[in-house]
């Protein structure tokens, strides 16, 4: 899809030709940012012709600093003058989350928008970092910004570029712990006649290693529909995707395990190259299987009490796979409560 026909192209032109001139005319002193943020495949640059069958049209995000929040009602009133169509597309339409027919120029403060996507923030505590999902962060950081006169948007996008160092070490340790716990069972289940169980474990491990690839490369993982497309953009993709595919199609547990080990070694090398303690593949006791030794330094060098007091469960995405939990920002406080309960148990135990 050419840029002008893409969602980003439509949003860019809509701001350039319609919304930007309208704001300049009606509120010339307003300091605002215009961008294509939030939900939608086009925010990730992955939309195609099929994407147009719902929630498609002239979508734009317009944000102001908290100090300018009182201008939002005036701006909303000014947007009543928007035309009915732009480049043959409706300007006012309904969506799956809001069937009301109206313009889809989202107006908010920078802080309000961030809270709305992440469910927390915009200044994140340690526990807050553990509850946000990659997709929710990408809805703030991945889309293009067409104009920005705010003081807050660029700063918050920069802050959300990746986990703080100690949180990163904690989630990496949790990710490798998941791999260490499951890898030996790929062979054990198969040798006990549970080939389906071995295949299911392999698929789970491929998912875990894919998630680790994003962590190791310091990139945010999108939700499942676009995970492979985003994986292909990672610097480790050329070496990693072959072993992951081989693990999934192998007919015997030994080549399954060998392929998983090859993928582990790719990621361990990339983690080492970043200057971080890296895992290594080790025998699983005296059995003919392999496991992973998680470097103790990943957790041993942590000083943040909100991390040292937690079990190695990692981020919300590492222990929850319910779409209704992960995709709904309003569920972040519930997830945070679980972390705080673990911390409270550690402090009173």
Layout of secondary structure:
Blueprint: H1 7-26, E1 33-35, E2 59-64, H2 72-78, E3 85-86, E4 89-90, E5 92-93, E6 102-109, H3 110-118, H4 126-131, H5 134-141, E7 145-148, H6 153-159, H7 165-191, H8 195-216, H9 227-231, H10 237-249, H11 253-273, E8 280-283, E9 290-293, H12 297-300, H13 305-308, H14 316-319, H15 323-326, H16 332-348
Parallel strand pairs: 2-6
Antiparallel strand pairs: 1-2, 1-7, 3-4, 5-6, 8-9
How much strand content do the residues show?
Answer: 5-15%
DSSP strand tally: 9
What share of the residues lie within helices?
Answer: 40-55%
Largest sheet: 5 strands, mixed
Topology as H/E string?
HEEHEEEEHHHEHHHHHHEEHHHHH
Cα(first) to Cα(last) distance is 58 Å
Low-confidence residue ranges: none
Question: What is the residue-mean pLDDT, rounded to a whole number?
Answer: 94
Going across the biggest sheet, name each strand in turn. 5-6-2-1-7
* Overall tally of domains: 2
Principal-axes geometry comes out as elongated
Give the helix tally: 16
The class by helix and strand makeup works out as: alpha+beta
Compute the gyration radius: what is it? 23 Å
């Amino acid at each position: 899809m050419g840029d002008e026909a893409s969602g980003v192209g439509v949003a860019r032109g809509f701001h350039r030709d319609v919304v930007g001139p309208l704001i300049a005319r009606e509120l010339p002193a307003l300091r605002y940012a215009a961008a294509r943020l939030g939900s939608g495949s086009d925010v990730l640059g992955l939309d195609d012709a099929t994407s147009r069958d719902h929630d498609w049209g002239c979508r734009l995000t317009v944000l102001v600093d908290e100090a300018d929040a009182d201008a939002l009602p005036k701006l909303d009133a000014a947007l009543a003058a928007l035309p009915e169509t732009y480049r043959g597309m409706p300007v006012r339409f309904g969506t799956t989350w809001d069937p009301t027919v109206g313009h889809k120029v989202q107006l908010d403060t920078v802080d309000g928008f961030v809270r709305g996507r992440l469910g927390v923030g915009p200044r994140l505590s340690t526990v807050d970092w553990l509850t946000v999902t990659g997709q929710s962060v990408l809805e703030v950081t991945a889309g293009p910004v067409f104009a920005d006169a705010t003081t807050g948007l660029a700063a918050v996008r920069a802050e959300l570029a990746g986990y703080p160092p100690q949180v990163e070490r904690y989630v990496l340790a949790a990710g490798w712990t998941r791999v260490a716990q499951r890898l030996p069972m790929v062979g054990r289940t198969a040798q006990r006649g549970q080939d389906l169980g071995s295949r299911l474990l392999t698929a789970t491990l491929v998912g875990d290693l894919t998630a680790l690839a994003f962590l190791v490369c310091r990139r945010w993982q999108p939700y499942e529909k676009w995970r492979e497309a985003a994986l292909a953009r990672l610097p480790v993709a050329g070496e990693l995707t072959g072993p992951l595919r081989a693990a999934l199609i192998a007919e015997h547990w030994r080549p399954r395990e060998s392929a998983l080990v090859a993928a582990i070694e790719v990621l361990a090398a990339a983690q080492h190259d970043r200057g971080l303690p890296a895992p290594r593949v080790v025998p699983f006791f005296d059995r003919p299987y392999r496991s992973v030794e998680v470097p103790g330094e990943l957790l041993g060098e942590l000083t943040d009490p909100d991390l040292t007091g937690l079990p190695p469960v990692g981020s919300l995405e590492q222990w929850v796979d319910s779409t209704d939990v992960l995709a709904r920002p309003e569920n972040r406080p519930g997830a945070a409560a679980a972390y705080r309960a673990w911390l409270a148990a550690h402090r009173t135990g």
